[in-house]
Design a protein that fits this description.
73% helix, mainly alpha, 83 residues
């Protein structure tokens, strides 16, 4: 979306129409401010973090089958609701 289009959309959220549109405009301002405060993560840091996370997820076991997952979910429900 181009800047001009964004401005047009913002003015469609006129504050004189009601509280809901004022809240939308305030939420938009808040989102813009948050985006300015976020510090970008450098690419080497991000790729290193991804490698570390992948390492945490590795296992020697095979992924469970659909039937095994269904059994695990059923056991969890029984533990949660029947005990």
């Amino acid at each position: 979306m181009l800047l001009q289009e964004l401005k047009e959309q913002v003015f469609k959220l006129s504050p004189s129409v009601g509280a809901a549109r004022r809240r939308h405009r305030l939420a938009l301002v808040s989102a813009i401010i948050e985006s300015l405060q976020d510090t970008p993560i450098s690419e080497p840091e991000r790729s290193g973090a991804i490698r570390r996370m992948r390492g945490l997820l590795k296992t020697d076991r095979a992924a469970p089958t659909d039937e095994e997952v269904a059994t695990m979910l059923e056991e969890r429900r029984v533990d949660k609701y029947l005990q």
